[in-house]
C-alpha cells in the first residue's frame, strides 16, 4: 500500500464549492512482488483500489471514498506471430462420446485466424457447415476462463463461462461461410497468467446445437497477451 499527503496542496483548508487537487504517484511493488493486470474472476481476483480520506475538524465527521482503478501490463517487446488453426468436426473427431453410432452424420469445417491473441483485438475466423443429416438449431461461441489455484499440497482447477455469443440461428445454408468474431471483455479477461500459486488461462468453444438436442463442442486453448 502506498500513501501520499495532499493537505499541503490544499493549504489545509477547502472552501465551499468544487475544489480540484491534481496528484500523481508511481506504482511501486514491494520486494519481489509483481503488479499483475486487473482481472475479475470467480476464484482469482486482481483488483487495485484508491482510497481518499479527508480529516475534518472535531465537530465534523471524517470523509472517506474508495474507487477501483485499472492496471494494464506493459506490451510485450517481441512481435506476436499469428498461429492460425484449421479444424474439421465430424462424428469421428469427437471425444467423450459413448454411442458414436447413434450420432447423426455431419461435416463442419472452419478456421481461427489466431489462437495467440492480442487482448485488445477480436478473435476472428470463419465456419462452414458442409453437410448435416439433422437440422441445426444454433451455432455459438463460448469464451471460458480456466483458473488454477493451490500450492504444493494440491491444486484446484475450475473452468467457468465468461460469455456466450450466438453466431448463427436456425438451420444455416450449407457451404456458406459464417464469420467468427468475438471481442474479449476487459474486466473478465487478462493476459494469460502463470504464477507459483495460481494460473489464469482461456479457451474458446465452438458449440453446434442440433434440433435433436445433440450438442457438438470443439475446444481451442487461447493465449492472450498485450501488444
Automatic annotation (TrEMBL):
Cited Gene3D superfamilies: 2.60.40.640
InterPro entries tied to this protein: Arrestin-like_C, Vps26-related
A single BP term in Gene Ontology: intracellular protein transport
Sequence similarity: Belongs to the VPS26 family.
Protein name per Swiss-Prot or TrEMBL: VPS26 endosomal protein sorting factor C
Gene assigned in the entry: VPS26C
Amino acid at each position: 500500500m502506498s500513501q501520499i499527503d495532499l493537505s499541503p496542496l490544499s493549504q489545509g483548508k477547502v472552501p465551499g464549492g468544487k475544489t480540484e487537487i491534481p496528484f500523481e504517484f508511481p506504482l511501486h511493488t514491494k520486494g519481489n512482488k509483481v503488479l499483475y493486470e486487473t482481472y475479475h474472476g470467480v476464484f482469482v481476483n486482481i483488483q487495485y483500489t484508491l482510497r481518499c480520506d479527508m480529516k475534518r475538524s472535531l465537530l465534523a465527521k471524517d470523509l472517506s471514498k474508495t474507487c477501483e482503478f485499472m492496471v494494464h501490463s506493459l506490451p510485450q517487446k517481441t512481435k506476436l506471430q499469428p498461429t492460425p488453426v484449421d479444424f474439421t468436426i465430424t462424428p469421428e473427431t469427437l471425444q467423450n462420446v459413448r454411442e458414436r453410432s447413434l450420432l447423426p452424420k455431419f461435416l463442419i469445417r472452419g478456421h481461427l485466424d489466431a489462437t495467440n491473441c492480442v487482448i485488445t483485438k477480436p478473435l476472428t475466423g470463419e465456419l462452414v457447415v458442409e453437410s448435416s443429416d439433422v437440422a441445426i438449431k444454433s451455432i455459438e461461441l463460448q469464451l471460458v476462463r480456466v483458473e488454477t489455484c493451490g500450492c504444493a499440497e494440491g491444486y484446484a482447477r475450475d473452468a467457468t463461462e465468461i460469455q456466450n455469443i450466438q453466431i448463427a440461428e436456425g438451420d444455416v445454408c450449407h457451404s456458406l461461410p459464417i464469420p467468427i468474431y468475438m471481442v474479449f471483455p476487459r474486466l473478465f479477461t487478462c493476459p494469460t497468467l502463470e504464477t507459483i500459486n495460481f494460473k489464469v488461462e482461456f479457451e474458446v468453444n465452438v458449440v453446434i446445437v442440433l434440433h435433436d438436442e445433440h450438442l457438438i463442442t470443439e475446444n481451442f486453448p487461447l493465449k492472450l497477451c498485450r501488444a
